[in-house]
Amino acid sequence: MVALAGALAAGTAFGYASQRGAFCMNSGMRGALAGDWVKLEALALAVAVQLVLLPLVFASGMARAGGLSLAPVAAIAGGFLFGLSMRWAGGCAAGIWYKLGAGDIGALPAVLGLALGAVAAESGPLAGVRAALQGAVPAVAPWVPPPALSAAAGLVLIAALARLPDGRAGAWSWRTTGLWVGLVATLAWPASAWAGRDFGLAVVPGTTGLLSGATGRPFPMWDGALVLGIAAGGWLAARQAGHLTLRVPEVGPLLKRFAGGLGLGAGASIAAGCTVGQGLTGLGLLAPSAFAVTAAIFGGSAAATLLARRAESGPGALASSPPTG
Known about the structure:
The protein is an all-alpha fold. Helices cover 69% and strands 1% of the residues.
């Protein structure tokens, strides 16, 4: 019960900060293409906070470092598919969860698609494709940086970010969002260690786990409580700000978001993580796979954005206002 309470607390804090700071890598990466790096600056600060604090967490024995192996072909292919799908799903994996809590009913088919897509690639009809991509070249074994290297990298990154001007995304500045998310991502390690789980924040395992639980099969309860907490945090933040209104799209957009969710789930399964498991938690470990997956996600997001702009405005149309959601 203590471990589940920790999962709910971590998820709620993460969902609350994400909604208040509009912390979603779908809009963050699209915004960067238009010159607005505020949300990626928040991500960078969250990573820097982990780099400085996680060595202390691991040295204290409150958690054990869990590494991420790198399957290069799968990292690139799965990451690109995930990035490509974010636009249609209306958010990244964490984004659709906190938006659902904040009243975006259209996020529900995206969440369902995320679960089904991941299951299809993990043990369903796409399992062979996933296995082939992950085994295309020998995987690089998990690597955890020495504490001194992690702390030094975090301090250098913090010093670089301190020179940047402040800016807002949602109701918060990127500094507030990045600090909050970084602290939550750090505390998620000891919170999950209480459940015998050696990793930090991740969204996809809990999403697929809830689907398994709904069919009567065993599922990782800590991860399930975490994603429910993210939705609860989004609800709490929206209600506190007076922005909690139910928004139900028409059937066409709902189907599009479901299809996008399928791509998110399949891509995350192939790449062994998403913008949270790889991009936030993995970068906080300086995991080589995290850099590969995150870069591929950015590439997929850029491709989807450029294709959409060409379709809407004709060839050569690139300038547009930075997205907000």
